[in-house]
User: Fold this.
Amino acid sequence: SAGMILKYLKDQKIFDDSYYEYYNRALIHGIDLHDNGEEPQVYGYCSFSHVIANYNTIEHAPPVEEQDQCFYIALDFVRGHLDRLYQRFQYIQSCRDAVKEAMKGNPTCMVFDKSIPWLELFFELGGEDHPAQFLIMPSGVHWKLRGIPPNYNDRMSVRTPLPEKWAGLHEGDLKQVSGIEGAIFCHKGRFISVWETREDAEKALECVIKGE
Assistant:
């Protein structure tokens, strides 16, 4: 299986643990679920394995030449995807020191000066036991105040939700309720909000901490 090959590469020290975990999480585990018949059968759901299967010949019993052609087209796609994953992994790892430094700051809220991938690194660095409840980070030309998940596997949840009265509000309505002029948006799930400036995001954090 793909998982056995990946494990072999780790056991042979060709991949280190972080590289192994990244590829397993991003791709290989899902392929093995498909191969073992354990993939969720959900209407409209399309996995990586489904995409590759679509490169099979359209007609049954095609000429060998056509099968070979389809195989090499699929191979080219897979190589491109793996290369893209590798580049993303390298970029994530390059941000490790920035995340580590942010974890040393305000114990309640990590603050980043630029947008970077932080989630995987935060939990790799012991984030599950870290006290931070929120992070502030640029989001395009604006800034976001986001809740931090309790752990990586439960990353759609947050340790502390944003105020219920902010949920789903936009601009004028959020400005009125929060009292912050730079208010832009708060998701109805109360895990993320967007503000005009860093100062606005920091004011929003103060409101959350004070329970306003």
